[in-house]
From TrEMBL:
Residues 1-20 form the signal peptide. It is found in: Periplasm. It comes from Enterococcus asini ATCC 700915. It comes from the Bacteria. This is Solute-binding protein family 3/N-terminal domain-containing protein.
Length: 320
């Protein structure tokens, strides 16, 4: 009897040992499979902006690596520095706008649009006599000429029944300077991105109009065709990770990620409670209407001479 119990005990131990080995083997297989999945780096040139948040979150939470890509963002304070790095091949792509895409194409760069980004320009005023965009007729408006900001202002004016000939343009490329001039009553309006729009309203200024309000989205991700061909899987992974980050934002409390807006975009800590989180959506492709509108404007302002159609600049690497 004692011998039988000893034998059964040894048998049970053997089964447990085999089970443990089996589990370890499965874990080892999973680890090996994970390590075998190549992770390719995708470097993107960006300006501090709220449309970067899903990409930043995707990297911080590891969503990017889950989809076989490491998203690396290179931050630039000036568009000219971002574009110089792009032209030199130091970044794989750039978060930019449709006017810039026209300029890249005119310069001979085969840059394609892989998808939209979720940006926004706001037209801000501090003048009590200006109640609507239409009230800007004959007024001074601060923007940067021959850029996406001037295009945005033109579209806002058109919606209000005006043209860019109806305003006095004051050219100021530096965004912080635009805000300071507006606060000091040096102009009646200025076009601003975040975080400067929130900083402006916190100081008592008002939003007259925005690119989203008038129904346009000129913000896109641009990449050279050769990069798209070489890193197609990484680009697909980037968009899958982006969508996962958008879901995370929708499913979690603002306090779980709001610090990113301060650390990465530049919102002042003092305005933490006033930050409006954009209503991010899953990634989308730029529309033919937005592209045609921006390219027509670029031609009218001598930035584009080529006869480009939306199909000439839209990539199907992710959106078919």
């Amino acid at each position: 009897m004692k011998k039988w119990m000893t034998t059964m005990g040894l048998l049970a131990l053997a089964v447990m040992t085999l089970g443990a080995c089996g589990n370890e083997g499965k874990e080892a297989e999973k680890t090996a499979a994970s390590s075998d999945k190549a992770v390719e780096t995708l470097t993107l040139g960006v300006m501090p902006s709220t449309d970067n948040i899903p990409l930043i979150l995707a990297h911080e939470k590891g969503f990017d690596k889950d989809h076989g890509v490491e998203i690396k963002l290179e931050n630039f304070k000036a568009a000219k520095d971002r574009d110089a790095a792009f032209q030199a091949g130091k970044v794989d792509g750039v978060s930019t706008d449709l006017v810039a895409i026209a300029i890249y194409q005119e310069a001979g760069m085969d840059v394609k649009i892989t998808g939209n980004t979720y940006g926004q320009f706001d037209l801000i005023t501090g003048d009590d006599s200006v109640k609507t965009t239409a009230d800007l007729k004959g007024k001074d408006v601060i923007l940067s000429k021959k850029t996406g900001t001037e295009y945005a202002v033109t579209m806002m004016l058109e919606k209000a029944g005006l043209t860019d000939q109806d305003i006095n343009v004051s050219e100021v490329p530096q965004v912080p300077t635009r805000l300071e001039l507006l606060k000091n009553n040096q102009a009646q309006a200025a076009i601003l991105p975040e975080p400067f729009a929130t900083m402006a309203t916190a100081d008592g200024l008002r939003v007259l109009d925005s690119t989203r309000k008038i129904g346009i989205n000129p913000f896109v991700m641009g990449m050279p065709q050769d990069v798209i061909e070489k890193k197609a899987d990484a680009i697909k992974g980037m968009y899958e990770a982006y969508n996962e980050a958008v879901d995370y934002i929708k499913d979690h409390d603002k306090s779980d990620y709001i610090q990113l807006f301060i650390d990465e975009v530049g919102f002042p800590e003092t305005l933490k409670d006033q930050i409006t989180v954009p209503d991010y959506t899953h990634a989308e492709q730029a529309t033919d209407e937005d592209i045609t509108s921006a390219f027509t404007w670029a031609k009218e302002h001598d930035l584009l001479t080529k006869d480009l159609q939306p199909k000439d600049v839209l990539s199907d690497v992710y959106f078919k």
